[in-house]
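Posting here for the record, re: KG4.
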Amino acid sequence: MGIVLGIESSCDETAAALVTTGREIVAQRIASQDEEHAPYGGVVPEIAARAHAEKLAPMIEAVLADGSVELRDLDAIAATAGPGLIGGVMVGLVSAKALAMASEVPLIAVNHLEGHALSPRLADPELEFPYALLLVSGGHCQILRVEGVGKYTRLSTTIDDALGEAFDKTAKILGLGFPGGPAVEKLALEGNAKAVPLPRPLLGSDEPHFSFAGLKSAVLRAKERQSQSVRPEPVEGQGESPGKRASTSSARTVSGYSDADIAASFQQAALDCVLDRLRVSLDTMEPVPALVVAGGVAANKAIRAALEGFASERGLRFVAPPMALCTDNAAMIAWAGCERLGMNEFRADPLDIAARPRWPLDPDAEPVRGAGYKA
Ligand code: KG4
Ligand code: ZN
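Prediction output follows.
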């Protein structure tokens, strides 16, 4: 049995983990940079890279100590080599190269998206290739047929925003802070998903692609309408207080809906789009026995539940990784390394391999008409 050190630093999580080819997560640590980025309402690449540079080396040391593992005991060192914010990716990849060189352990440069794509197999030994994968994160929104390690056919991608990005922008509009996905999900629990009419971009289109920019703009307009129509609330001794803003989930408004209603309506609209796009993709895909979801948005319970229902209607097995493996982590990177190690034709990557800001899983996929470039 082999053991792999995984390193993740492509966005705002610094993470290291030890995983065996027998699917045991021996040790893992993760440091989020939420506090550093919160004042800016999003990830600032320069701040992220500096934070990775400070946190990563002691974290690797700690993870090796947690697992009582020496560098020379490792069978490989796997690090995210892209896609992602290039400064952060370079910190992780160069650290891995230095450790690999010093300890003469093979280096594996992992595609972050492949880490997400294979993560469900870490938790579920019964999940075999091929499977249909909905990969939904802050930077990506794709439907793929996963045929094997390194073998992906992309059927669908987004022509503008990723699903996680739409959640984050909705959170920003509602003043929920950063990162936004979990906050929108929580607020949506208190809201009425039918209260705010919102568009479902590309619903019913024969092409399986996603679009969320129009939905985000509609959320912004809904919030503006709500703020403009706030009923002035009388303030004791001062008569009416004009223009009081509706900033809480329970604010009474003339428009008749609360922030929670906007969150719930947004989540429902996004979900309707996801199920519709999946339907079209699965209809054009060579049949698969399982539907799998991965990436940060896969942590959303409402989305998981809807996907589970959708899969069972279509007679598909549904697999979602445990919550901790959905958002960025190093166990999935170590596991992608384990998967590579297990291949007959395993070859380590050279020490001069480049960090890649963009790195599509399916390089042969047709570019999508009207799309901005998404890896
Ligand atoms: O996979 P990930 O950690 O990083 C990327 O590779 O992008 O995904 C982060 C994204 C963010 O946009 C975040 O808001 C979203 O996943 N996310 C969620 C939830 N948890 C994380 N979106 C909706 N509901 C959640 N519970
Ligand atoms: Zn990710």
